Please model this.
Amino acid sequence: MIHLTPAAVKAVQRFIRGSENPVTGLRLMISGGGCSGLQYGMKLESAKNDDDWEIEVGGVTLFVDPMTHPLIDEVTIDFIDTLTHTGFKFDNPNASAQCSCGQSFSV
Model:
């Protein structure tokens, strides 16, 4: 299960409303990079892939590919808006280490 805080749900819904193209969901993905080895990614999607795992959280449809899913199972995504940082922050219990910005991790 993936968790979105109310602030994250509100931010995603705002981005979906502001999209120029039709959006059916938010893709969560992991790729190599970042200061800890793996980094989180998000993308508004117009369609679900056949092999995607799909979950609805707070009215937001999430799409996760089979390779990403085990790496982010039980992750909590928050949206932070402060004087020094604005953006999504990931809290991943599967990570053995993660950077202080909450954007990358290692397992």
Notes: The radius of gyration is 13 Å.
